[in-house]
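Can you make up a polypeptide sequence alongside its tokenized fold?
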Amino acid sequence: MTHDHGHARTAAALDLLDADGIRLRHLHLHTLKPVNADAITPHLAAASAVCTVEEHTVIGGLGELVSDLVTRGGLGLRVTRIGLDDRWSESGPNDFLLDKHGLSPGRVADRLRGLLPAS
């Protein structure tokens, strides 16, 4: 699941995985509030694991929202959050910062590969 500006970069990461024969479902949420739990929960219920990607701190954003839906739904899913650590960051070129914080397409694809069961 992605939120906001990270949508295109996450789609690019999934294209990298698709080229390797790894196909994952991508759900883009353009807004977090008000949450449409009825629309999101069926996607969560059909998943074996969930990873959220957001250009935001992992505290108080998409990852927390999805974790809450998983918990309230009693779904027992593993939720991994890809986003900014809750700490101060430096300024710099956007591409540099995205890569440094694991949000570039290549870094997201690598992180998702690492979450998949060994085959």
